[in-house]
Write a structure and sequence with these properties.
Blueprint (H helix, E strand, L loop, with lengths): L14 E3 L2 E5 L8 H10 L3 E9 L1 H6 L5 H13 L13 H10 L14 H5 L4 E3 L5 E4 L3 E8 L4 E6 L6 H15 L15 E6 L22 E4 L3 E3 L2 E11 L5 H16 L1 H4 L2
Parallel strand pairs: 6-8, 8-9
Antiparallel strand pairs: 1-2, 2-5, 3-11, 4-5, 6-7, 9-11, 10-11
Helix pairs in contact: 3-7
Length: 273
């Protein structure tokens, strides 16, 4: 989404949450203003889309690492618009070749001049600040659920995002160990305002998953739900559901997110290192 933004003049106009920056949107020049008003104020609408993501590349590349932290990184890298190593200018020719062979062509029309991933991914980091101003975060942190076998309940935990996989993987393992025994809805306090909710249903493979808030909500971050992965024709498939607010994301944007997740799974050997 190509956004017209009001650039803060100084640090006093910028909002920070654990090193992420909240960038206000100038609604007067924002191309999506009409659609936002329509789906936020008139036809209040959230929707869910479920697709089967081929995670064969991820499963082959993880080499003994725990599955969920790897999946958590993959999903958050898509939401945060992080480039793969082969998409950065510092990459080696070998990595670029692997990226080219593994790349999935996005079967979606692009606006004239293309559409950089960072701009599209902002769609999934839109939020309102305490004063009700709309803007986007430079990145989001994952909030995920831990299951308690003792009473079959769950608790929310969050981990601090970093684009460096090894650091992120270690942080998630540490947080899971530290808060895994804490019961109640919230295991880790002080959840930051820039978050993306991710949970897993490892007992069930599904073809549809609908989730919505009962009351009106300013929750614009996507809700990501993964099911039980399964084997089919020699490939490993993962049910993934994305629930979003139509005020900020159309079918195109959500389709882009699925395509990005699929691409990052295909080239997992480039970032799982």
């Amino acid at each position: 989404m190509s956004e017209a933004l009001s650039h803060p003049a100084g640090l006093g106009d910028q909002r920070h949450t654990r090193h992420a920056r909240f960038v206000p949107i100038d609604l007067g020049t924002w191309p999506r203003r009409q659609y936002f008003d329509y789906y936020f104020n008139k036809i209040k609408c959230r929707y869910s889309i479920t697709a089967q993501v081929d995670i064969t590349g991820l499963m082959q590349a993880r080499e003994g690492r725990r599955f969920f932290p790897c999946l958590l990184y993959l999903l958050m890298a898509a939401v945060n618009g992080e480039p793969t190593p082969a998409e950065s200018c510092s990459d080696t020719p070998a990595a670029k070749d692997e990226h080219s062979r593994s790349s999935v062509q996005m079967p979606l029309p692009l606006p004239e001049g293309g559409w950089p991933g960072k701009d599209v991914s902002r769609t999934f980091r839109l939020s309102m600040d305490a004063e009700g101003n709309l803007g986007w975060w430079t990145f989001c942190n994952p909030v995920y659920t831990l299951f308690h076998q003792s009473d079959c309940s769950f608790s929310d935990v969050w981990s601090e995002w970093t684009a460096d996989f090894s650091t992120f993987y270690s942080r998630v393992l540490e947080d899971m160990a530290r808060y895994g025994g804490v019961t109640g809805v919230t295991a880790r306090p002080d959840k930051p305002g820039n978050f993306c909710s991710i949970s897993s249903l490892p007992w069930l493979s599904f073809t549809s998953f609908a989730q919505d808030t009962y009351a009106e909500s300013r929750m614009f971050f996507p809700l990501l739900r993964a099911g039980k992965h399964y084997e089919q024709s020699g490939r490993t498939l993962l049910p993934l559901s994305v629930c979003v607010h139509h005020a900020v994301a159309d079918g195109f944007h959500t389709s882009w997110l699925f395509c990005r997740v699929q691409h990052l799974a295909n080239v997992a050997k480039l970032w799982l290192r």
